[in-house]
Amino acid sequence: MEAMELILSLSVGLGLSAACGFRIFVPLLVISIANKAGHLELADSFEWMGSTAAIVTFATATVLEVSAYYVPWVDNLLDTVAAPTAVVAGVIATASQVGEMSPLLGWSIAVIGGGGIAGLVQGLTTVTRHISSFATAGFGNPLVSTAEGGLSVIMSVLAIVVPLVAVLLVLTLLFFAVKKIFFRKKASEEPAAA
Fold first, then answer.
1. Nearest residue to 35 (alpha-carbon basis) of 160, 140, 158
2. 97 exposure class (CB count in 10 Å sphere: 0-12, 13-18, 19+)
3. Whole-Å CA distances, 184 to 129, 149, 176, 179
4. Are residues 23 and 149 in contact, defined by beta-carbon separation less than 8 angstroms?
5. What is the C-alpha separation between 92 and 61, in angstroms, rounded?
6. How many structural domains is the chain composed of?
7. Is 17 among the domain residues?
8. 114 inside domain
9. Residue 49 forms part of a structural domain
10. By the 8 A CB rule, do 93 and 31 touch?
11. For every one of its 194 residues, what pLDDT tens digit does the chain have, with 9 covering 90 and above?
12. Which of 66, 121, 123, 188 is the most exposed place for a label (fewest CB within 10 A)?
């Protein structure tokens, strides 16, 4: 595998994994549709994702998942279940793109990179939803759900169309989220020390 192809494959996989952190099934549906339309190649063992049955299954799961996030307090419950599921979906999304490298390296990247990014993004969405639930008694959660769903679609499409931009967007998002959390924690500790 040529170096540029490897970088692009990893970028597509990691961008799709980040999108799994916002919504689990949206990126999997986008992968299926893009493969069926001939815009995305899948690793040999993941060709099933481009089947009509997979598209129907992922579309049904997407509608159910997106709809459930608009039900008050069910959204918080879903975040509990979504955390490990998002990691698995992130691993699948990345693994579907790194098929031409050695299995050990490919699966290591998929588990650590894909699962890790999906888990980080899912964790950030969980924190955001809890803050929204506390601050607005849950009334602001539909707005949060809409933003997450939109980001999942945008990130999925970007990962396929312009993968390097998608990875830069993910890194920027994670940088600012970690910076905000770190400085918020540091600011809250300063008065206690004084």
1. 160
2. buried
3. 17, 26, 12, 8
4. yes
5. 16
6. 1
7. yes
8. yes
9. yes
10. yes
11. 588 888 889 999 999 999 999 999 999 999 999 999 999 999 989 999 999 999 999 999 999 999 998 987 788 788 888 889 999 999 999 999 987 788 899 899 999 999 999 999 998 888 888 888 889 888 888 999 999 999 999 999 999 999 999 989 988 988 887 777 677 666 556 655 54
12. 188
Residue 16 to residues 51, 119, 135, 163, Cα–Cα distance (Å): 19, 12, 31, 9
Amino acid at 55: I
Q: Distances from the Cα of 10 to the Cαs of 4, 24, 129, 165, in angstroms? A: 10, 19, 29, 12
Q: What is the pTM of this model?
A: 0.87
- Closest by CA to 128, choosing from 139, 144, 149, 152, is 144
Distance of CA 48 to the CA centre of its chain: 20
Distance CA 55, CA 114 (A): 21
Question: Domain containing 105: what range?
Answer: 9-181
Residue 24: both structure tokens together: 């689990």
